[in-house]
Amino acid sequence: MNVKPNPSSSGSTGDGSLLPTLVRASAGTGKTYRLTARLLRILLQGASPETILATTFTRKAAGEILERVLLSLAQAADEDDPEALESLRNQVGIPTLPRSVCLQLIDTLLRNIHRLRICTLDSLFSQLARSFPFELGLPPAWRLTDEIEESWLRERAVDSVIATLDRGEMTALLAMLGKGDIKRSISRELLQVVDAAYGIQRLCIDEVWKQLKVPTQPESADITRAAGIMRMAMPKQKRLLTKLESFAEKLELRDFDSLMDDTLVANIGAARRSGGEVLYYRAPFPDGVDEAFDVVYAAAKTKVLSLLNSQNEATGTVIGAYDFHINQLKQSARAVGFEDVAIRLAAEFSRLDPQSLAVRMDGAVDHLLLDEFQDTSPVQWNVLRPFAMRCATVGTGQGDSERAVPKSFFCVGDTKQAIYGWRGGVAEIFEAVADEVPGITEEEQNKSFRSSPVVVEAVNQTFRNLIRHPVCDAADSNDPTDKSMYEATAVRNFARRFPVHSTAKSDLPGHVRLETCRIVEGGDSAARQLACFEDAARIAAEIHAADPRRSIGILTRTNRGVAQLIFMLERMKVEVSQEGGNPLTDSAAVETVLSAIMMADHPGDGRWAFHLSQTPLVEIPGFGPEFVRSMCEDRGIAETVEFLSGKLAPLCDGRETLRLKQLTALALGYETNPAARLRDFVRLVREKRVERPQSAAVRVMTVHQSKGLEFDAVILPELDGALTRTRSGCVPDIENPGDAPRGLSRYLGSKSWHYLPLNWQRAFGMQAEGAMTEAMCLLYVAMTRARQSLRMVIQPASKAAFENRTSSSLIFHALESDQDPTTGQTVLYESGTPTWMNRGERISDDHHDAQVSVETVSIRFRES
Ligand SMILES: Nc1ncnc2c1ncn2[C@@H]1O[C@H](COP(=O)(O)OP(=O)(O)OP(=O)(O)O)[C@@H](O)[C@H]1O
């Protein structure tokens, strides 16, 4: 098999060659389609499967790519489906592609499916780690942790940190961490510090927490003199006089704490930055106090920065101790997390040349295809870079002239969908690839193959008109201490860079509506949010009743919202499923088995025996704590779970039986853990989300979980919260995107940014800008999941409230609604037809259809 493409025919994908290519593809414009086309083309030209590496971020996405590859080939190989062959020819840009080649390729692929690497980055990295165990310092017979084990190990490491410090050291440390306040429980405080800072500190140099420069406190004599000047000053206004006297007293008592958040101190800072006069309630002070003001400001600044500095240093101490203990724990458990693997690989690969990499990996990767590239973290890029450089350097490498298919590099992504900043994703790396990878060609795709014209128009209008929101007014403020300037810049840049989307689905009927929910008299924000959820549930039920085959996605911001909506829909008897699944404890039968295990582990605690006395398990002869414990000891947890489940299963419906089977599967997996304890297994079951295999027509999930999915109708009921949340985490000072931070600091409220040195003001500002950009990305992902119908339900509020930084107000301003947002149950914007579901094509769950078809076609193929 060796088919050459027609160079003049680029196919509908524009992918006429295998030149190094970077594709910026907007939502629904066919990233997966494009990547699959490229992969097929490489295979059809004769490259062997083991030379190809395609990576993405989720197992589901990797499965989808593989499915599409197999399905396209299988359908094209089918004599009864001439259109499929034509469509594949068009997709890969090979107009003369013979059916026999498709047949031959699918045969090869089905026999060598294990050689074709279409995988997640995590799975690639663990494969790579197996080739470099010594260089990476991995323990012998190491294994990967899952997120639940990671969280146990993390808690144990924090306990070890606490155990090694004496009482005095711990009190001092906590006081520093809390800037003088000791509020929480010790372990909660330390866990919070670890969550906020460990991931990022691992990428940095040792002194990273010591980069904030703290000025020295003004001389004592200067402070006394400044107090004197203030006492002598005689402003005419009483308010100014009182203020100066209060400042003088604070200086005399050396009480700088209460100066830190004082408005006048902030005004002094603002006046010094602008070169203007110091004002208080718009009134100027008499001449001669300026020198004293500078002393007050310096004293407050020193106090703020030294507190922050102590907090930073204490954080560094905690993280250092935590790093030591977590490594020890992991080393003795021979356990390694995905993050550990990635960090060690990145360090090792920066030393290795691509050729030795190929040798060590038992064969070279000649074709690299990277999906969702905007979510790549700097560490991940450091591991991928040598592969990228090797694949992008065509014609100069060893053996290049003998290769049937020249090496190739392809990456695709959308910086408008970069919603994983908190997980380390740095969208700017996507931009940097264009400069780093030699000879790369850049392309843009903005034509949606998903959404109806009314949905695309609403998306265009929303994002291109973001600047209509009053929040953008601050973009020109030019004040590096002003958080709203950074946020406004983020919104404005998003709008400016937003490309106009078009759609290939020009005839697809659609409907978009922005509406308010009912007015909730006297309710708090939770009650108002609930009213939006009620409307969302009602809308979903109505669409589902009108056409039960339509897929409907209700997308929330929070997990709590998901739970509330599931509860409402189930009460309305609408069959609903939750993306990512629930813990198995949503089943009464599973709870019964867990009670039996807890009873065995805690025989003195009567709660478990009481619960079990109401269940059929008590009918087992000899049943009791000893019975279950000895069964666990003799036969293991999995067999015990299976035995107990078997006793309950005959009394269960299909849903409960499935959950019991999933519980047994979880127990089987858990048993492989050498440190397995009964109570930890119960905890695992309570925490781990397990999906049901079949999804319902109505699906509820967070916007993050909806990434990569599409629905006939999308309902967005949680658009009213603040766009960004104040982070208690830590702020990196980064010179260039993708670089390791040169400094780290704990968070400081934006009102105090003016005390920071300029580089730190920028660092804090960049973090605020990034958070706002991510909020825009989240809204974009949410709105673009819709094929035909997009329904947005928001809370009625005063016009002033519509100036707040919320998604609802951004959409309201951008869609230029002239309706009154203060009234309840009002349609603020509507376009298209509410009866869209009666017309046009129906697209059901593609993923499921594709899976069924791949299986059917491959069975048919094998039979023939
Ligand atoms: N060139 C094309 N011709 C026909 N259909 C296409 C083409 N590209 C994509 N599609 C279809 O359009 C839909 C969206 O494609 P896909 O899921 O690849 O988009 P995407 O860019 O990954 O979207 P998102 O970034 O929003 O997840 C799918 O149903 C896909 O089959």
From TrEMBL:
Biological process according to GO: recombinational repair
Catalytic reaction annotation: Couples ATP hydrolysis with the unwinding of duplex DNA by translocating in the 3'-5' direction; ATP + H2O = ADP + phosphate + H(+)
InterPro entries, sorted: DNA_helicase_UvrD-like_C (IPR014017), DNA_helicase_UvrD/REP (IPR000212), P-loop_NTPase (IPR027417), UvrD-like_ATP-bd (IPR014016)
Keyword entries, A-Z: ATP-binding, Helicase, Hydrolase, Isomerase, Nucleotide-binding
Residues at which ATP binds: A25, S26, A27, G28, T29, G30, K31, T32
E.C. numbers: 5.6.2.4
Record domain UvrD-like helicase ATP-binding: where: 4-452
Molecular-function GO terms, alphabetical: 3'-5' DNA helicase activity; ATP binding; ATP hydrolysis activity; DNA binding
Any one GO cellular component localisation term in the record: cytosol
The keyword Isomerase is assigned to this record: yes
UniProt keyword ATP-binding present: yes
Gene3D superfamilies: P-loop containing nucleotide triphosphate hydrolases (3.40.50.300)
Protein name per its UniProtKB record: DNA 3'-5' helicase
